[in-house]
Fold these 3 entries.
Entry 1:
Amino acid sequence: MRTEDLIKALDADARSKAMPLGPAWWAAFGVAAVVAAMVFFMTIGPRPDIMPAMHTMRFMSKFVFTLALTTSAFALIRALSTPGAASRRAKLWMLVAPALVVIAVILELFAVPEADWGRRLVGSNMMICMSFIPLIGIGPLAIFLGMLRYGAPTRPVLAGAAAGLLAGGLAATFYAAHCFDDSPLFVATWYTIAIAILTALGALGGRLFVRW
């Protein structure tokens, strides 16, 4: 069978599902958000001073990064789960979140004395960050990998990695409400590592469970 014929067959299979793929993705994301919220509130919950913290730019900037990542990863995984769908634009949008973090880090380096750079980078919750972002995100990751099987991705490893990025962005959004380390230096380092763990797990899951 030619590649073009395979893609058409997969696309026809994806369209024949009981629920169209687009609404199914929104439903899956809603369920994943509920699962992440349950894990978050049953374990660490928001920081006690969250209301005053919401009036600070550093605290709110964390959500700008995590929500940008979540939004762009959601667009990418929807494109990758549909055979023949264009994903180039969605891939380009994935550059937004890293670019925002880089800008925030540069501004932080100008605003903070060099002697404080190391302390702000290490923070006080490094291990909690790298533990709880994957913990909060593992349930959503399983849901997103299941949705990839509901669709018909032609690049399962890449689609799985996108699922990990989406789960990581969602989990990091919840974790950011608990995290006491608001410096962009901390976010750029430890949030990225924690999200990368979920991305690697997603790529592995795509290879093992989303193959055709």
Note: Residues 3-209 form one domain.
Entry 2:
Amino acid sequence: MKVIDGGITAAQGFEAASTAAGIKYQGRTDMAMVYSKVPCVSAGTFTTNVVKAACVQWDMKIVKSDKPVQAVVINSGIANACTGQEGFNACEATARGVQEVLGVPYDTVAVASTGVIGMQLPVDKLVAGVKAMAPKLDGSVNAGTEASKAIMTTDTVNKEIAVSFEIDGVEVKLGGMSKGSGMIHPNMCTMLAFLGTDLDIEKELLQEAVSDVVADSFNMITVDGDTSTNDTLICMANGLAGNKKITSKDESYEAFKEALSYVCTSLAKTMAADGEGASKLFEATIVNAKSKEDAKTLARAIVGSNLSKAAIFGCDANFGRFLCAMGYSGADFDQNDVELFFKSTNGELKVFDKGTPIVFDEEEALKIMKADAVTVFVDMHEGDAEATAWGCDLTYDYVKINADYRS
């Protein structure tokens, strides 16, 4: 497997376009379209929030059916959540607009929205945006990059990645883009993500691979403890690579899953590092835990703690905050087995050793924690399971951004 240029348009047959539709933002692109030249099998994961946006419900119905997916239309600025029947009407109008200009059945068109909850979408602008994007659809790297920029809200950087890998001597490509900066917390985390591959694979196996990978990537990031109404990940596979169709969990399936894991983990880490107001990536790695579930629980508790996040922001090696978060996480462990370290590109420092604090050099700790990415590394000494979670520090700017989000 190797990382290649581009994102959502990297795989054969995928095109993208973007436009400034004026949904909410002015002076910037705010709509994107992803299109496959041939119908795709699809898989998806969606928010576990009981309050689901109209677009989430629309997409869940399509992905869970036997229908293919051939296009996705995304808008930023307004979330189309808590919008009643009018919200569903907006989804259908958008999809029918795609049917009119591209000739694909409207019920093979997924839609996604991100932005303010409780506002109605201007349907006329949505449909006009679709019509403006259709003639601009392009398979270039730039078209994919511009699409990834159009779906941003409070994100400060666009998020895209692509890889290539071989299956039985055939080159296969997988590319993706995502957005997410605030209201991010597992299950699924607040985000939109769209993946396109030219792999030929059965729908059921695609869904299983996506669900497994999301559990260890997007579901292991947190910014602020809020799970969104709009979380959506859709993976489309159009089969144009020409590989022998994957119909079982063989070596080809594992090769695809490895590539999928790399793409999703990379996008997830970029989202965590770009958390609203964040100044650094905050990572927690748990090793030698009793079980995988315990390891996940402990790692997520550490990066999800506001006190831990504040300590990371202040470059304060106050290890008690991280141990405290572990203690209330719900995982059962003996603190007298635990070793805790701080790690970064600037060094590594043990600060807690099996129930006993270690006298450490505060200047060395400060140097380590001033890096752009800081890891709290914990050895549980109770088993062989491990997990990593990602978050960000908690800064003054987080409050500023969210205090006036609607304006």
Note: The mean pLDDT is 91.
Entry 3:
Amino acid sequence: MRVLGVDPGLTRLGIAVVDGGLGRAVRAVAVDVIRTPADDELATRLLKVADGVEAWLDRHRPDVVAIERVFSQHNVRTAMGTAQAAGVVALAAARRDLPVMFHTPSEVKAAVTGSGRADKAQVTTMVTRLLRLTEAPKPADAADALALAICHLWRAPVRNRMAEAEARAAELAKAHRARLAEAAKSGGRRPAGGAAATPNSRAAGSRAVGS
């Protein structure tokens, strides 16, 4: 599986492609940062992000796009810009019918370091080690994009098994409800041979026996 990992942002958007092999084997294909000038208009910056991401999608043809889920930050303006950049990436992937998965920062940290509270330096160190890179990826946005791709590769099998188990449980529940409905329906059926006897017909039958 080939994953395009994206650490969204307007000023710097980390972007990386990682291939997953058997087990937990991972290999870095490409990593970079898409930058937009802070003094440009918002629409222009989003267009530059879109153009850059679409070029990566066309060049590397990933199977899935993994994006960091945006959370509220102290700086509302920064959070909004990050969310807008993430939306542009998701739209570009959707136009190519690519699945888009969102991972929280703690999920990513836990996947690559074993701790959901790891700092950026620890994430960078582990990404460098896991991918056997000759030097640490810089800036941190690039390392985060690689970490996102690794996170998805390692979480996808678990997620798929959970989805299969949920689907199987839903099928069993549906079959069980159908059996209950059939049993209830069967229990209300009248005996074969005609309609149920009325009180008058039972009384007439009693007189006939006694006569």
Note: The two ends are 89 Å apart (CA to CA).
